[in-house]
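Supplementary Data S3. Sequence and structure tokens for construct A.
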Amino acid sequence: MENGLYHVTTRGWPRRVIVGADRDREDWLRLLDRLATRSNWRVFSWVLMSNHFHLFLRTPEPNLSAGMHDLNSGCARLSNRRCHRSGALFQRRFKAILVEDQTHFWELSRYVHLNPVRAKLVQLPQQYHWSSYAAYRLAREAAGAPPWLDWETVLAEHSKDLRKARRAYQRFVEAGIEYPPASPERLAVGGLFLGRASWVDPMRKRLADEPEDVNVPQRKRLTGRPTRAEIVRQVQDHFRADFLDLTQVRRHGNEARVAAVYLVRRLTDERVTTLAKPFGDVSVAAISQLLSRAELRREADRSWNGLLEDLERKCRKTAVTRKVKCQDLTPMEA
């Protein structure tokens, strides 16, 4: 659903661990980063447990199913490869509850952050590393949070003064240790809707009346996202590259082309198959290999990682103040 607000859960098969060691959790978090960025998700809270995970998020575009498919299939591939096994990792695709807007932000994010406490892994949620709770508690952690983690919207429900809001939220979460909040699945009407009856009834009717297409805007508040044209122009400006530079396949050290392909794939919903022709008319496998090398280099090369982060910020800023017009685009950029 466009602009849909969801609580999403995915569980592994009984007694099958989806993440074991910290390197598995780091891999999963990298997958989430790629998918949330590419799908334009606004994630309000997340937690990764050994056998399941929770996400509380908004989908400005109707792409929850596609994004979750990529996230879960990517996680399954990594887990099966590492454990030398095959077969399904998760019980089902995922379970999503549609949430009424602006009524459950604190309650749902608290429920997500208290998962490790309920599982008796820790006594306090801040003792568990694999969740978004640190960004809510500490300014330095929030400063390093990925752009898709929207902790500010949740805290702003209490106060525009973030220091006061952080303290209030921490007290609210800790109160849930002694008096645990109810599961969203238990509270959801029909296992699908979480909200007031005045919202649930028309929402249920709308979904029943439109079985083939439920992607009707609930409230249009899309966040800006760059187009391929805007990304290409930012890369060209930085590298002082021209149109032909981005199509030269066998040119050694063509970082402009690598950066352009990588950022278009990361910041838009374009598939690998659509990038092969405009960036040199190469095979899909060649584009996939380029993307893999660029991602691995980010982890090993701090200057390369910093360059891509800087270009990403500029692309996002351009999207917010978009002035590019369709008639100005070159055939590659269109």
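Construct B, processed identically:
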Amino acid sequence: MRLVALLLVLQASYAVAQESPATKLVIEQGGRETGSEEFTVRQGRGRGALGNTLQATARYPAENPTLQLAAVLERTPEGALAKFQLDVQGPNGPTVILAAGSGARLIIRTVGKGSEAGRELPGGPDVVLLDDNVFSLYGAITDLATPAGKPLTGVFPRTARRASFVARRESGGDGRNRVALTGDIRGTLVTDGQGRLVRLELPESGTVVTRAPD
């Protein structure tokens, strides 16, 4: 029993060591602060599987929010979707959106107050899951971007929107990665060496997301 307990402690310590400190984001639209987000990225997935896990919480507005979102995104070592869950607390009550990849298919299930719906969409390795209010999810684009430009499809599970765009990796300085987005999604994405969001600009919506000072 002592050996089992020791192993559990060591595993827990390893998980903590592999988890990045919480990163805070400031969200502005049209030059006005509209919300905030906090997220962590850790190595490993549920049940000890390999890959990485992003956990994020967004609040609109930052104080006394009327809209709160909590997201969990698990990805395999190859960057493929393993699990996605988005919990939304808003004026219309709670909603839970679940998504999972199965080969070339993407299965999405939405559970709301007194209702449940499911749908199937084209999936695959070039699909990234995004949300209009959880911007740390954009960090996954960095791993897929290439210097020549990588065609990708963004799927927004909460609204069923699909967006085709190209992610082109540009040379970055001081350990950062810079990605230019063109197509249905246009803007600039900057992440640090661990793929965590530093800055995101989406000119069409007037959205600017910046990492808050530590």
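Residues 21-211 form one domain. DSSP finds two helices and 15 strands in the chain.
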